[in-house]
């Protein structure tokens, strides 16, 4: 009898939403001392991080129009200083453990060019207003695995629990949907690589203007991935319907193998299962730095701090550079990325007892102005630093949101690394509003077998 009572109590606790909404007075800070996304509006003490002035919302003269490459609006900017293997110790308080490990391992070649901080992140008015309403109404349910009463904007701009910033990253506004090339390269210790070309179509159902929680039918993101090359992988398809309440219904996923010519349910698409074409250098939940269920970790907000992170990465995104210009031995060509000093939320995820994942601990560093996970320190089960991950974002000034244009995952133990989300030699990502029926399994099956 006692066992039955305990089980019933546990199920009740899982079903109850955790209080995440804030008071009216706190929410009103989003219109005064905080940015609409929840960042601090003011500058830091020495002015090295300027005040947020609304972000970068103009169109630079170098931009050639819809569908064309996002050009660098700051071509005259020069590095303020360069961090190298010889001087990185003086900047340790602003570097993650992974960044410091890179200097220790590759100090002769690894460097960070640190530019003036430009707080370019900006979002449409309807997203800002939705974020304000979410602050007042939004909750968590299902032990943190369900969003309740949030839509379109950041769910928890003034976070109180560790899982809330992770949700903010997962559903941050990136437009209503679109198509991009997510090309990736697994790089050997000698610097050799083979390119895997992947096309991705996505509908951000949660982000649709005018959407309501009920209109989502429990799907926040529709995602379709098609491998274009190399020939041995070409035609592989992954289809995902990401759910808003993952207790009510976990992620729906399917995979298509050209040899079998059937689209099959694929419950293994998630967590620490190997990512497509990544030569075992990333897990499924490392696409977009982190995606999917959060339930295998206990999440804790460590605090906020000033960190040197990738930002305004227009140069490394330029079509002037071929993949061979970017991908080098040991690490990418560090002449190309831009780094800036920004305030970040530091969130630590520790693997729960009784659950499994190849990563025992992950430390996320999330940009306060966009909720993009910028850096990730990743630890193995021995407590040793294993991998380190970074995302290089740009402000999509033509659409008013921030988006990552390249991600790297360095395996500090093997000396290999992965570059993903590149499109330098392919067309620019573009906005497209796909109908939900496009992502219906039956439609995907028909398209795959044409």
From TrEMBL:
CDD domains: LolA_like. It comes from the Bacteria. It comes from Solimonas fluminis. Residues 1-20 form the signal peptide. The lineage of its organism: Bacteria, Pseudomonadati, Pseudomonadota, Gammaproteobacteria, Nevskiales. Pfam families: DUF1329. Keywords: Signal. This is DUF1329 domain-containing protein.
